[in-house]
Specification:
Strand order of the largest sheet: 4-16-15-9-12-11
Distance between the termini: 70 Å
CATH architecture of the largest domain: Sandwich
Order of helices and strands: HHEEEEEEEEEEEEEEEEEH
Oligomer: single chain
Structural class: mainly beta
Number of strands: 17
CATH class of the largest domain: Mainly Beta
Shape: elongated
CATH topology of the largest domain: Immunoglobulin-like
Number of helices: 3
Length: 294
């Protein structure tokens, strides 16, 4: 319609409807976003080939600078890194409208161990099993709230368990399980993997693709039907220290508005000598006899 009759009365109504259907991350899918942008591009006026631009004064990060918008420079992008208020002023009335788009993003002040569980379409929970040496049963350690601290010793093997509740069928879903920096994933598919690398838990549904990385394990699905899904793999504590364990996360790869995460936590990996003393340490708030709480 825009090409055939640019002055059609229904055209502004259609443009307005298409714009309002969009969300912060697009129109829902990659294909829908591309189609919407191609359609709206038909309404853009040609870039002016010449003429003087408009002088704009911009105050950002406590500093003021002057930029020219228009003419051979139709767009200008500026960015700041402080929370100070900014200001934009026009030196004079412009010959053409000047449009300003402002985007503000924040990084949480707390680290990932303090992240709370959150659901925007997926419900994600996480726990681990401490695998003992010998025939003793594994210790089940749920991560029920953010900020808990869990103690391991170098060489300890744990089995990660993640559960994702998906209320309806979705396509192109990623389930990403980050690991604390002092913990190393054990890939049971490798020919050199030890016997303890194979988890006792199993996947509810085989993924379309799985990736074992240095700092996370990711499961990808082309289609994930409605239901509850369990994921399991093992890792080993290898480096002594205190580390952040970010939350496990499930999300639609092409619709960032649909996601969910588990609580974050902290992992303390004790040296071998200390680990022998601290064996059986529970989440933060408890301590073995004969030791002092930090």
């Amino acid at each position: 319609m825009a090409l055939r009759d640019p002055q059609a009365k229904r055209l502004p109504v259609l443009v307005g409807a298409l714009v309002t259907l969009g969300r912060g991350d697009g129109w829902g899918t990659t294909n829908a976003s591309a189609s919407a942008l191609l359609a709206l591009a038909e309404r853009l006026e040609p870039k002016p080939s010449g003429g003087a631009g408009t002088s704009v004064a911009v105050q950002l990060d406590g500093k003021e600078q002057s930029v020219t918008v228009g003419g051979q420079t139709p767009t200008v992008a500026l960015s700041g890194t402080t929370p100070q208020a900014g200001e934009i002023r026009l030196a004079s009335a412009p010959a053409r409208p000047v449009v300003v788009r402002v985007e503000t993003s924040y990084v949480p002040a707390a680290d990932g161990s303090e992240a709370k569980a959150h659901s925007e379409g997926f419900v994600v929970s996480r726990l681990f099993l401490r695998i003992p040496k010998g025939d003793a049963p594994p210790e089940r350690v749920p991560i029920e709230k953010p900020g808990l601290t869990f103690s391991l010793g170098i060489g300890d093997v744990i089995e990660e368990r993640v559960q994702v509740v998906n209320p309806k069928e979705r396509h192109y879903v990623a389930v990403v399980v980050p690991l604390a920096a002092g913990v190393e994933v054990m890939n049971p598919n490798l020919a050199t993997a030890p016997p303890e690398a194979r988890p006792t838990g199993s996947l509810t549904l085989a993924p379309s693709y799985v990736a074992f990385r240095d700092d996370h394990v990711a499961f990808y699905y082309d289609t994930l039907p409605a239901g509850t899904y369990d994921f399991a793999f093992r890792s080993r504590a290898t480096v002594a220290g205190r580390f952040v364990q970010p939350p496990a996360r499930a999300e639609m790869m092409y619709d960032g508005a649909v996601w969910g995460r588990s609580p974050g936590a902290r992992i303390v990996v004790e040296p071998k000598a200390e680990a022998a003393k601290a064996e059986g340490v529970k989440p933060a708030g408890t301590k073995p006899e004969g030791t002092k709480a930090p």
